[in-house]
Amino acid sequence: MMKSEITVYSDGGARGNPGPAASAFILFKDGNEMSRRSKFIGVTTNNVAEYYAVLLAINYIYKNNLFKDVEKIIFNLDSELVVKQLGGNFRIKNIKLKKLAEEIKSIERSIGKNIEYKHIPRTMNKIADSEVNIRLDENR
Question: Which fold does the domain 4-138 belong to in CATH?
Answer without folding.
Answer: Nucleotidyltransferase; domain 5 (3.30.420)
